[in-house]
TrEMBL record:
The gene is panF. CDD domains: SLC5sbd. One of its GO terms (cellular component) is plasma membrane. Keywords: Cell membrane, Ion transport, Membrane, Sodium, Sodium transport, Symport, Transmembrane, Transmembrane helix, Transport. It comes from the Bacteria. It comes from Jeotgalicoccus meleagridis. Belongs to the sodium:solute symporter (SSF) (TC 2.A.21) family. Pfam families: SSF (PF00474). The keyword Ion transport applies. This is Sodium/pantothenate symporter. Its main location: membrane.
Length: 472
C-alpha cells in the first residue's frame, strides 16, 4: 500500500501543480475553454490519446474482451476510431475554419436564435454527465483495489481532485497534462498486455486454448449483430464534442488535421490491447467475475506492487484526463449555449470565465450523483453514444453539405428522434433501436426541410465550403 500511496501523491501533486500554474496564466474565457485556438501538434496528439483512453478503454473494454472476445474490438473500438478519422480527415479543416467553441455553436451560427440549445443540452446532459460518472466509477475502483476504500469514498475523493484540477487549470492544463500522460498510458497498456499474455504461455498457447468464439472478429450472434452494434456506437464519433474541441483548439487547420489523424491512428492500435488482455484473462480469472473488475484484478494479481502502481497511475491518468475533458465539454455547453444565449448575451469575458468555472463544478457534481446509479460501464457508455449519434449526426451532415436544410427540419429531426429513443423500449418492435432512430432522424430532417422555408436569421450556405460567421 505504501507504494500506491507514494505514486498517487506524486501524480496528483504534479497534476494540481500544473493546474495551479495555469490558474495565474488564464485571463480570458477563450484561454480557459479553448486554449485560445493556439495549441500545437504534439499537445493535440497527446490529448486525443489520453481523452480516448478513459474508463471505457482500461475497464470497460478489458471487461468486454473478457465477456465477448475480440469481436468487441471490431464492433466498438475499431469502428469508433474509423468514424473519428472520417471526422478529422473530411471535416477538421472546415470546422477549424469556423473558429467556434462547441458543436452547438455551429447550429446557432447556421440557423440563428437559440437553435443550438437542444444539441447543447444533449451534449451536456446525455453524454457528458454519464461519461464523467464512468470516470469516477473507474477512479473508485482503483482506490478500492489499492487502498481498500469503499466505492462512495473513492468517488467523492475523485470528485474533489477533478474539481480542483479542472476549475484551476481549464483546457490548457488538461491539454498539457494529456500530452505527458499519453506516454504513461501507452507504457501501462503495453506492460500489462505483455504480462498477461506471457502469464498464459504466450500468443500460441492463448490462441490454442481459446475457443474461436472469443477470437473471431464477428460476434457469436453473427454479422448482423456486429454491424448493428457498430451502428449504435460509431456514428456518434462524428459529433463527439471532445474531438471538436481539439480541432477548434489547434493553432491552425493543418495542425488540426495532422494531429487528429496521428492521435486517432495511435489510439486505434493501442485500443486492441485491452481486448487482448480481457481474452487472455479468461484463462485464469473466475468467469463469473463482474466484467468491470477484471482489469483491476489482473493488474493487482500479476504485477509486483511497484509495477502495478505504474499501471494504476496510468489508469488514473486516463480517468482524470477523461473526466476533465468531459466536465469542460459540458461546462462549455452550459456557459456558451445556455447562459450567454438565454440570460446574458453581452456578458463580459470575466463573467464568462467565472460562469465557466461554476459550470465545471455543476457538471462534476452531477457526474458524481449519476455515478451512484450506473451498474455497467459498457452499457451506459453505449447508450449515451447511441442517443447522441441518432439525434445529431444527420443534422450535422446537413449543415455541412445541404443548403436547403431548414431550422424547422433540424429541430423536428432532433426532437422527434429523442422522443422515439425514449419510448422505443416500450414499443416491442423487432428492429434495432439505433437503426430505426437514424432512419426517423433522416426522414424527418429531409421531409420537414423540403416543406418549410428558411428562417430570416438562417445562413443558407454549406459550412463545409464557407465560414458562416462571414455571412452574418
Amino acid at each position: 500500500m505504501i507504494w500506491y500511496i507514494a505514486f498517487f501523491i506524486i501524480y496528483f501533486g504534479a497534476m494540481i501543480g500544473v493546474a495551479y500554474y495555469y490558474f495565474f496564466k488564464i485571463k480570458t474565457y477563450e484561454d480557459y475553454m479553448i486554449s485560445s485556438w493556439s495549441t500545437g501538434f504534439w499537445q493535440i496528439t497527446g490529448t486525443i490519446i489520453s481523452t480516448n483512453a478513459g474508463a471505457a478503454v482500461f475497464i470497460g473494454w478489458v471487461g468486454l474482451g473478457f465477456t465477448v472476445g475480440l469481436s468487441g474490438y471490431v464492433k466498438f473500438a475499431m469502428v469508433a476510431y474509423i468514424f473519428s478519422l472520417i471526422l478529422v480527415i473530411f471535416f477538421a479543416k472546415p470546422l477549424r475554419r469556423q473558429k467556434l467553441f462547441t458543436l452547438a455553436d455551429l447550429f446557432t451560427v447556421r440557423f440563428g436564435g437559440r437553435t443550438g440549445i437542444i444539441p447543447s443540452i444533449l451534449s451536456a446532459v446525455i453524454y457528458c454527465v454519464p461519461t464523467l460518472a464512468l470516470q469516477l466509477i473507474g477512479m473508485s475502483t482503483v482506490f478500492n483495489i489499492t487502498l481498500g476504500w469503499n466505492q462512495a469514498t473513492g468517488m467523492i475523493v475523485g470528485t474533489i481532485l477533478i474539481l480542483i484540477f479542472s476549475i484551476l487549470g481549464g483546457l490548457p492544463a488538461t491539454i498539457l497534462t494529456d500530452a505527458i500522460q499519453s506516454i504513461l498510458i501507452l507504457i501501462g497498456l503495453v506492460i500489462l498486455a505483455i504480462t498477461v499474455v506471457m502469464h498464459v504461455g504466450g500468443l500460441p498457447n492463448l490462441f490454442e486454448n481459446t475457443s474461436w468464439e472469443f477470437l473471431s472478429p464477428i460476434s457469436a450472434d453473427g454479422v448482423s449483430d456486429t454491424i448493428l452494434y457498430a451502428l449504435s456506437v460509431g456514428p456518434f464519433y462524428l459529433v463527439w464534442q471532445s474531438t471538436w474541441q481539439r480541432i477548434f483548439a489547434a493553432k491552425d487547420e493543418k495542425t488540426a488535421l495532422k494531429a487528429g489523424i496521428t492521435g486517432h491512428v495511435i489510439v486505434m492500435v493501442i485500443s486492441f490491447l485491452p481486448f487482448l488482455i480481457g481474452v487472455s484473462a479468461r484463462q485464469f480469472v473466475d468467469l463469473s467475475m463482474d466484467q468491470d473488475l477484471v482489469f483491476a484484478f489482473v493488474t493487482n494479481e500479476l504485477l509486483p506492487t511497484p509495477i502495478a502502481g505504474i499501471i494504476f497511475v496510468a489508469l488514473l491518468a486516463a480517468l482524470m484526463t477523461g473526466a476533465t475533458s468531459f466536465n469542460l465539454q459540458g461546462a462549455s455547453n452550459l456557459t456558451r449555449d445556455l447562459y450567454q444565449v438565454l440570460f446574458n448575451p453581452k456578458a463580459s469575458n470575466e463573467k464568462l470565465l467565472l460562469v465557466s468555472r461554476i459550470s465545471v463544478a455543476i457538471m462534476t457534481i452531477l457526474g458524481l450523483v449519476v455515478a451512484f446509479f450506473i451498474t455497467n460501464i459498457n452499457d451506459a457508455y453505449r447508450w449515451a453514444l447511441m442517443v447522441n449519434g441518432v439525434m445529431l449526426v444527420f443534422p450535422f451532415l446537413a449543415i455541412m453539405f445541404w443548403p436547403r436544410v431548414t431550422k424547422a427540419g433540424v429541430l423536428t429531426s432532433m426532437i422527434g428522434s429523442i422522443i422515439l429513443i425514449l419510448i422505443y423500449p416500450y414499443l416491442n418492435l423487432p428492429f434495432d433501436q439505433a437503426l430505426v432512430g437514424f432512419i426517423v432522424s433522416f426522414v424527418l430532417l429531409v421531409v420537414v426541410s423540403l416543406l418549410t422555408q428558411h428562417d430570416e436569421k438562417e445562413i443558407a450556405k454549406p459550412a463545409f465550403k464557407y465560414k458562416l460567421e462571414d455571412y452574418k
